[in-house]
């Protein structure tokens, strides 16, 4: 519907309004829709159409509370009243509007998009309103385990981030629930709104046992389950000392063998060197015997030529 007003110049000006009187009003029950962080979310909304349906008389208004998310009238999008939180992130399916599709596509979903949304549709054949809750969720990352050995026991710290909403944590030791012995810290990123969760537990007496860490993200049905094996310090020390003893037991014979080879090589080197020297001395003596010195008399003087 539209209202007609008269301007100061006396001309009639037609302005659209968000309020209209329809022959019938249909209220659709509330639903719940879950969106994935940083992905696109489609909020479904349909309305009945028949042969008398007219696009120019169709008004579609999406709201979250009192904030305008997206509006359509006069056969086109009207975004001058759109809340700035949704700028460049909303669109309708214009080509499917003739089939009664008033669904909204919301791009790059953030955790701050959660809330109660309402789709209001007014046409020349009737009006209807649909409200539903929108929840946003994000998967938590693979948990990271950090441990530190202390004189009085051991500390375990399990950390996971990038998730939403806050998860449920559980620790098991064997079949016993030891969650009440842990300390959990939850931090929220001021920009993305995503959570970082850390769970800390301290054991004063370490015995051979099995631990299980469980993270549950209910909206997404995400369950992360990680098993941790603990071994007593005495067993570890015994295994370590046995390993070192075995290691030295192998290395000592190898060292002795190398030393023996070095001695043998040194003796051979000395023997070969001396033998070569004796052979060289004999060779020199033999050469002198075969080539004696020659004496020439020149001008009554003697000279020796080798």
TrEMBL record:
Keyword Ribosomal protein present in the record's keywords: the answer is no
Task: Fetch the InterPro entries from UniProt.
Answer: BTN3A2-like_Ig-C (IPR053896), Ig-like_dom (IPR007110), Ig-like_dom_sf (IPR036179), Ig-like_fold (IPR013783), Ig_sub (IPR003599), Ig_V-set (IPR013106), T-cell_Activation_Regulation (IPR051713)
Q: Where is the Ig-like domain?
A: 23-135
SMART domains on file: IG
Spell out the subcellular localization from the entry: Cell membrane
Question: Can you tell which superkingdom this protein's organism belongs to?
Answer: Eukaryota
Membrane-spanning intervals of the chain:
248-272
Q: Which UniProt keywords apply?
A: Cell membrane, Disulfide bond, Glycoprotein, Immunoglobulin domain, Membrane, Receptor, Signal, Transmembrane, Transmembrane helix
Q: How does it sit in the membrane?
A: Single-pass type I membrane protein
This protein is called what?
Butyrophilin subfamily 1 member A1
Q: Which organism is this entry from?
A: Labeo rohita (Indian major carp)
């Amino acid at each position: 519907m539209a209202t007609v007003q008269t301007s100061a110049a006396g001309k009639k000006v037609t302005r659209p309004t968000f309020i209209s009187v329809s022959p019938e009003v249909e209220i659709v029950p509330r639903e719940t829709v879950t969106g994935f962080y940083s992905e696109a979310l489609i909020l479904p909304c349909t309305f009945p159409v028949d042969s008398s349906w007219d696009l120019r008389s169709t008004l579609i208004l999406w709201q979250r509370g009192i904030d305008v998310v997206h509006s359509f009238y006069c056969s086109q999008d009207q975004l001058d009243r759109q809340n700035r939180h949704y700028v460049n992130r909303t669109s309708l399916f214009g080509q499917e509007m003739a089939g009664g599709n008033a669904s909204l596509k919301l791009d790059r979903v953030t955790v701050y998009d959660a809330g109660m949304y309402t789709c209001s549709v007014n046409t020349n054949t009737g009006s209807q309103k649909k409200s539903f809750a929108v929840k946003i969720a994000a998967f938590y990352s693979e948990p990271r385990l950090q441990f530190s050995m202390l004189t009085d026991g051991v500390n375990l710290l399990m950390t996971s981030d990038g998730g939403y909403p806050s998860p449920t944590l559980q620790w098991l030791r064997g079949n016993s629930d030891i969650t009440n012995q842990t300390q959990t810290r939850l931090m929220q990123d001021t920009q993305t709104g995503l959570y970082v969760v850390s769970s800390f537990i301290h054991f004063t007496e370490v015995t051979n046992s099995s631990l299980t860490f469980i993270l549950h993200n209910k909206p997404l049905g995400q369950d992360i389950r990680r098993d941790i094996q603990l071994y007593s310090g005495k067993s570890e020390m015994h295994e370590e000392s046995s390993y070192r003893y075995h290691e030295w037991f192998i290395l000592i014979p190898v060292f002795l063998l190398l030393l023996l080879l070095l001695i043998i090589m040194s003796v051979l080197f000395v023997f070969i060197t001396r033998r070569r020297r004796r052979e060289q001395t004999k060779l020199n003596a033999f050469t002198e015997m075969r080539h004696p010195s020659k004496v020439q008399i020149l001008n009554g003087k003697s000279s020796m030529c080798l």
